[in-house]
Amino acid sequence: MTAATTDLPRAEAPRAVTLWRRFARNRAALLGLFLFGLVVLMALTAGLVEPVDPLRRAGDPLTRPFTDWAVPLGTDQLGRDILAGLFHGARISLLVGVLATLLSIGIGVLVGALSGFFGGWVDDVLMRVTEAFQTIPNFVLLLSLVAILGSSIEYITLAIAIVSWTAPARMVRAEFMSLRHREFVDAARNLGVSNASLIFREILPNALPPVIVYASVIMALSILLESALAFLGLGDPNFASWGNMIGQGRSVLRTDWYCAAIPGIAILLTVLSFSLLGEGLNDALNPRQKKT
Amino acid sequence: MTGPVLDIRGLRIALPKGADRPFALAGLDLSVNAGEIVCLVGESGSGKSLTAGAIMRLLPEPHVHVAGGAILFEGRDLLALPEREMKAIRGDRIAQIFQEPMTALNPQKTVGWQIDEVLRLHTRMDRKARRARVLEMLDLVHIPDPTSVHGAYPHQISGGQRQRVMIAMSLCLSPRLVIADEPTTALDVTTQLQILKLIRELQQKEDAGILFITHDFGVVAEIADRVVVLSQGEMVEHGPAAEVLNAPQHPYTRALITAIPALIPPKPRNFQGAPVVLRAQGLTKTFAPRGGLLGGKRRTVKAVDNLSFDLHRGETLGVVGESGSGKTTVSRIVTRLLEADTGAVEVNGKDLLACSPRELREMRRHIQMVFQDPMASLNPRKRVQDIIAQGPIVHGTDPATARARARDLLELVELSPAAATRFPHEFSGGQRQRIGIARALAMEPKVIVADEPVSALDVSVQAQVLKLLADLRDRLHLSLLFVTHDLRVAAQLCDRVIVMQKGEIVESGVTADLFADPRHPYTQQLLASIPGRGWTPPDLKTDAA
Amino acid sequence: MHLSQVLSYALRRLLQAVPVVLLIMVGTFLLLKMAPGDTVDALVGDMGGADAAYIEKLRAEYGLDQPVWVQLWRYMAKIVQFDFGWSFVYEKPVATILWERLGTTLLLMGSSLSLAFTIGVVLGAVAARRAYSLTDNMISTLGLVFYATPSFFLSLMMILLFSVKLGWLPVGGVKTIAAFHTGWAHVWDVALHLIMPTAALSLIYLSFYLRLMRASVLEVVELDFVRTARAKGAGEARLMVHHIMRNALLPVVTLLGLQFSTVLGGSVVVETIFALPGLGQLAYQSVIQRDMNMLMGIIFLCAIIVVIVNFLTDLLYARLDSRIALR
Description:
Chain A is mainly alpha-helical.
């Protein structure tokens, strides 16, 4: 009988391959990946494909789309090239989205990990602070921070991170609370492993998958927040931004609605791509949650 | 004489593509007569629970579905009935009792409401008559104070009571067939015996046929009239209980029965001269309820109360008790995974509980632990060799040496060294438990605390792991503190046992003496509750597989 | 479920909110200190300048020469009495303006949340019961699109369609100014004005509730007690109403409480676009006009509203979950 126990299962495919297979099974996720790739491509090639400065006049004001191939998607009321705005706006949206997400996840993981791992008064204090941030309506806090710090792109990114870290913090805390009493953590503690190692080497890798999935949500929300700020005219005036284009388009909505519609659709598709990506990541990283 | 209540012929259940085998059940023939208890026995994955699903027509279709055969209930083929008629049969003519009474009851409805629902669905009784019937049923299953339980939510009553409620619910329309799917597995032994008695009693009163699904041959010996043994979806043996239990024919059944720990303790070994490696003195731990200012109504619970014991070198000390006895708390306190309120734990002559964090990390190498859940006790993101080598590396061994040693240890626990680079989820439960043992051994500890190390395993795997533990203990002169709820397991391995109840030691002594002549009423009750205690598994060792 | 248990649970949650509110007070104070310029600067700016000695005198009068913690103490003492100071833009106490604006915002919140919650829960439950079917795919896709549409973009497109092209709905404001409607005509007029803002604000949250409800129902369906109910012979409708919904609603109710503050934040954009005289629009104008006292007043008032709403959802949750005494 001991022979049976020494039998080893067949070796599995490398983890990356398994993950990709699970991800690719979700066709919507592949669409998301494609859209996301497109946005990234636009952001990377903004200076090359569309060398026109999106903030300068490029043609006659209010040229309709598809009428003049020098400005394929037309121009707004100041004669600025809408396609150039899309390309350069993608850059800003992604930049703000990625940085704000990294920052807020970073803060969230730190707060959530400490809170969930240690519990007790550490948890009490950190959770009250988290609740305070959650109690203030996030967009109102964002407005106040921008009003105080100013509208430069760095401060906008920072402000978005400050209003977005609470959800990942709660999520990481919940994961830590359920994982910290798992037997493998006790086992490592019993080997004499230090608290820092327990937090970062034992628990965190197991707590991360849902956070990675949630990062796609934060990314989408950050882009929505940035564009809303820009729409209200509170964005960084030195950069083209989709939200700002929509805001500008509002004044010519009755006659030339495409000025607002085109960047609006760009935001919609970008955010959609993150949601689809997130679902694909969820299928890949948390396979137990979905039935075949 | 009329025909059987249930007659299953050639039942086959198909599994989805990509499962480990095409059929969960490949041709089951089984019949249950009125007034008869038929046990369907098998290890996990044998397809026994899916049989219940097929009879109730509640399989998770279309992934798992019946692929052939017939299920005749009172002569009618259930598989051919329209859903509407099937719905009328469920809960009325065929009732089911589930394994986990906590999750099987809706947490948001009162007990009374949930029993009442059966009557509302299948009868035209008015509210008053239904209430009277529900109270009568609660009384029938021996629930003290039926009126207050009637209005209680499931979480407000004990596990044993919940299972009684489930039984009352299933029996209130006097069904012809009751399917009991591991109804006592989640319960403590003393409660288990009471529930088994209750099922027996009611079945005789109601003359229903019972299909009793279980993995435990002790329970079979306790309750079965006839037995059907399943292995990997194949029916390997069937017959009257006495025959199958005492003269099994099929090699698989023989292997299963051989694996059951006999209730015969080992010959006492003398450890009086051996040095004490672990000495616990006056351990006390109280759990305060959470909730602060306004939540302070709940009483504090004394999990462990003034507990002392010695463990000698080379000895195995069993800590035995039911859930809530504090035995797990003891294992966590002596390893200082949990802080005790008072007391001392001397390991190697030094009090572990008084150590500073730095000293503690150093001391931990002397006392290691093997955990209960083979799924949860290994970090799923680490390779086996890193799991085993982690301890020595933390304590300063050079990583390459530690990993090489990890491979040796894998061999010691009878696993292939090729396992070293795999991840835990690639292994079966028994193999994972061996990895857990290797991890503990890597530290070359003086004491190993094993917290229910085999209770999550199937009986055949359990026997192998127990044998391995005993071998290693003797070869490496290990001292074991062995926590278990299973008296059969304790009898097999432990030199001495301490019996715990509500945080206190009620009795302790050399295993053989204690089993032969229990003094404390609680110990007597525990021993009397071991399922199948009247049945001694036949000695089949001569030609066991 | 005993009333006393529900109350003690709710009270416990309310007590937890006390430190949160205190933290927010300190937070708004810090923000005020960080902001360029203080009350005296604003006052002096309003007067068109003053000499240094007079400014010093004013500073002393307003307590701005005191140590920071004394200022904090005075600030908090005032704020608990809902005294948020003077608005130099409106030339009125901040609190007066806030009260005037509160009603509109609450109306918008109430209508948006009830719309989002009911439709989200119903669609989510339907999608889950028909999981992986065409219906489910359509509902889920709709949810994704709602989720991805920025409220300001949606608002503009609705204005374009319903006001500019079709002329069915008013472009903005909370009522027709010149009409002086009374009685039901007034109610109808306000309702017409609220249709587009409500839709714009609620769609994203509708998609949240939809997705959560769908996931929650799918999870509850797998639970043992649903299997028990099936084994009792209960039909699908009965399963849904008595066994699944009640349990599946719990996480959605939690989200309702958690997200209320986000919805309140979303009102800034929507109120601004539709020219609704509520707190959101006020917040935007205060940023533009740098009326910091007003902004901090809004933050504090919103926080109080959120605390109250959370208290109410806690009560609702305790009412729904019989196990609450255990928590």
